[in-house]
Amino acid sequence: MQRRTLAAVFSALMLIGLASLPAVSAEDKPTVIRISFPGAGTGGRPLSGGSFPSNAHLFKEIDDEFKADGIKIEWKFFPGAGPALNESYANGLTDVAFGHGDLPLIVGRATGLKHKIVLSSSRFGNSYFVVPAGSTAKTVADLKGKRLATFKGTAGQLTLYRWLDKFGFSDKDFRIISLDNDSTKAALATNDIDGTNITPFDLQARGIAKSILEVRDDPKITRPGTVWVGEEFEAKYPQIVQRIVTRLVKVAYWSTQEANREKEFQAWATSGSQAYIDYKKDWDSVPDLRTRINPLLDEYYVASLKSSIEETKKFKLIRKDVSIDGWIEPKYLNQALKELKLEDYWPQYDADGKVKTAARSKLAAN
Amino acid sequence: MSASIDDPSVFAARAAVHREPRLAALLNMARVALGAIAQRTVFAAAGLILPALVILLWWTAAAHRSVPEQLLPAPMLVWQTLHELWASGDLRSHLAFSASRVAWSLLIGGSAGLLLGFGMGLSRTLRAYLYPSFNVVAQFPVLGWVPLLIIFAGIDEALKISAISIAVVVPVTINTLKGIANIPRPLLEVSRVYRFSPLQVLWRVVLPAAATSLFTGLRQAVMQAWLSLVFVELLASSEGIGYLIVWGRQLSQPDLVVAGMVVIGAVGVLLDLALRWLASRLQGWRRGAF
Predict the structure, then answer these.
(1) Which residue of B has its CA nearest to A110?
(2) Which one of A48, A228, A306, B245 is CB 3.0 to 4.6 Å from A54, fit for a cystine?
């Protein structure tokens, strides 16, 4: 009797175990991962450029990573940029974001979107104040009361506000209209706007516009971009998230190799939102690619996010407060760095954007 | 002429019949009046059922989070946003911008429409030359004009006002033309008998007879202007009600979007009511003119 009961319990347990086995493996593996970029190429082309996550798409790194598992990667590109990415995520149509500017990221969190920041997609970068070719303006002050363009709701808006702030103006001193990248270029050509922030080299070469001021890699003017994973997806598929992050760090490493500089600029230019010459000249001031291609969530990243939140509040772009508690999840990044032996590969910056721990010499890398 | 209800002889006869049971008649009248009021109330209530249902659906959907709050704001939040917008003066300044755009377009498009309409209505020659072309051009929606207008007018005020003006010209012209074409011939013949000067014909015959149609044109024009305004303000603006909606979307504040829509609807209804009232006032003037 007792033996029988035991056998019954045992076989019942076996059955449960068997039944739950396929369920567990289904939990481990989604059939599709939906990865979104906060932008699209010119005319809505499904391409992105300018960052190492773009390389992950352009060189099919993520697709390759999951090919053997039969997991499909669905890439999404939004001409509506960061705000459109928020809408997509709110609609349950995005699992992972391969870059998100500070403003839409914070706005999304303020409206209750739940995601985990897993690594940074980019940092620093030059910023240019550009006017139509025929403009007589020499300084930002010359443009007071005139029409400036920015893509409102994107990180570009805060960058422009910081520019204006730097020269002692506020957004109220100008008429600021919202235009996307393509329209901004067209509007410069037709003199419909008097100034904007855009990479100018291609426009300059074509005689459309000229840069009157340039700020190089100022940690206070631009802010890092962010790669995040939806909270639900992260909770459900932690191994998948780890594989995405590890692969991204690998791509980041590849992207910092001097030998790949030309290759990636050419790949980025296929999106058409910036020309090859724009990347080439914009990155000329970066002898070590690790300055801008840096996935770390270091003190600088955290401090930047905090000051962006303060600015967003100051400009009344959010109504609810945003806390960074439990938002940043560095464990995947740390694991990836350890696994790839890249812990000291990238330079770490302090809250002011100054190098705190220098990067290891490139020669020592691998 | 046949006898009608306001013929005094008929009235006298009916009064005589009803003289005896006066009270009953009064009661009957009261009943009829009450019935009419009740019927009206029922009618008004019937019209409210659908909006009430929609609001109820919206309310429950928002309360149960069946649609994410980033996409569908709660009705109370929209109300609160409207309140804040009004209190901060933002709403008034945006409305002022939009209203001035509509006013300029009505002035420009309306004058052009009246000129075209009167010209083609009064002169057969002009009509022969212009009407076919006008008819073709009138088929393009404002939306279709915008890309072309951007090339010529840029993206600033000129674009907005020219696009809205185009939306205004068409209904004004068509209704003016229709109003003049539909003037009863006998009226014009009588004016000829009286040897009216052309100015007198215009003032005492054409204008009063065409007034209803002119007003229909104006009402349509105002509505068209208001609707196209919102569309053009979605493009490259930094102020106005349409801009408020785009801004709300960019900042993931759908309550701002819905608040903007509510304001657009409310202003539209108010404009229409005001114009209808004005039209009914003018009907009086029209009767006096005959």
Answers:
(1) B252
(2) A48
Of A91, A153, A176, the CB nearest to B251: A153
Q: Which of B71, B154, B250 sits opposite A152 (nearest CB)?
A: B250
Task: Give me Rg for the CA atoms of chain B.
Answer: 26
Judge whether A318 and A106 are in contact, CB under 8 Å: yes
What is the distance in angstroms between the Cα of A313 and the nearest Cα belonging to chain B?
A: 12
With 0-12 CB in 10 A as exposed, 13-18 as middle and 19+ as buried, what is A300?
A: buried
Is the model's pTM score more than 0.80?
Answer: no
Domain B75-289: CATH superfamily is: MetI-like (1.10.3720.10)
Q: A179 at the B interface (CB within 8 A)?
A: yes
Q: DSSP string covering B160-206, please?
A: HHHHHHHHHHHHHHHHHHHHHHTS-HHHHHHHHHTT--HHHIIIIII
> Is residue A203 very low, low, confident or very high in pLDDT (cuts 50, 70, 90)?
very high
What is the ipTM score, two decimals?
Answer: 0.73
Helix or strand (DSSP H, E) at A263: helix A261-269
Tell me the shortest Cα–Cα distance from A269 to chain B, in angstroms: 27
Domains annotated on chain A, with CATH: 32-123+231-364 (3.40.190.10), 127-215 (3.40.190.10)
Domain range summary for chain B, segments of one domain joined by +: 8-63, 75-289
| Helix locations, chain B, DSSP H | 8-17, 22-63, 75-88, 90-122, 124-137, 142-153, 157-181, 185-193, 198-200, 207-233, 241-250, 254-289
Distance (Å) from the C-alpha of residue A298 to the closest C-alpha of chain B?
28
